[in-house]
Amino acid sequence: MPLDVDHLRRWIGNGEEARDQITPQLVKGYRAMLDEDPGEPAPGEEAPLAIHWCLAPPVAPMSALGRDGHPARGGFLPPVPLPRRMWAGGEIEWLGDLRVGDRVTRRSTIEDVTAKRGRTGDLCFVAVRHHYETERGAAVSERHDVVYREEGAGAAAPRYAEEAAELERVIDPTPTLLFRYSALTYNGHRIHYDRPYATGVEGYPGLVVHGPLQSTYLQYLARDMNAGERPRVMRYRGVGTLFDGAPFRVCGRRLPDGTAALWTCAEDGRLAMTATAIW
């Protein structure tokens, strides 16, 4: 189908609302996924960074899923007629705390729909604004950028990390880790857990490491670089793809202006995600 951007832009302003609760069991599972002691989360204690991505995920019957495991196009998101959908990046602003036991409301709005012709073919970008609130008020405001691509589109030329890291973590993206994160976020996208689909249908060399999982590790690294204080704002962008089968690095360095440059990369330095943390 042709990419009719004028038609897709009619979805700008479309909104939806969802509610969920940060339960102790969710926090235990999340900590375990990050290889931390699950402990016994107590009501009122601060919830882990980026756990908001586990809250109120879209739920669709099996019959309403597309071939890739995502809910079929249309409804809240515009029906972009490009088959590959990926998390392209975004910006997170922390306005308050999320705590164990909180009942959280997420209000989502389509902010923009744009298209361009890139080196890898047609691309369509959908920007979604999410606001998370508790009974105490606003907690998180986030812009989530989704990119849609053509079937069989080639990868862009790789970029490489050029600076040395001040702090670095090494993560082994095992199939179990990717499955657990998919389960916690109710993400049915088959590229993260179904190897025959990821390699045979979408042409990847392995299972794909989730964009938000990479961003989660970067948020934790930024916090550790600043004496345990989380950033006020974090902007991040996917620039490459990571796969299971080999460890990847989560890196950061402080800049003279007090911000931090952050990135994830493969063992050979190929960048997958870049980010900036602002306190």
TrEMBL record:
Residue span(s) of domain FAS1-like dehydratase: 19-142
Recorded hits in InterPro entries, A to Z, give: FAS1-like_DH_region, HotDog_dom_sf, Mitochondrial_HTD2
Q: Which domain of life is it from?
A: Bacteria
The record's GO molecular-function terms, alphabetically, read: (3R)-hydroxyacyl-[acyl-carrier-protein] dehydratase activity
What the entry lists under Pfam families is as follows:
FAS1_DH_region (PF13452)
**UniProt cross-references to PANTHER family, sorted A to Z:** HYDROXYACYL-THIOESTER DEHYDRATASE TYPE 2, MITOCHONDRIAL
> What is the name listed in the Swiss-Prot or TrEMBL entry for this protein?
MaoC family dehydratase N-terminal domain-containing protein
Q: Which organism is it from?
A: Microbaculum marinisediminis
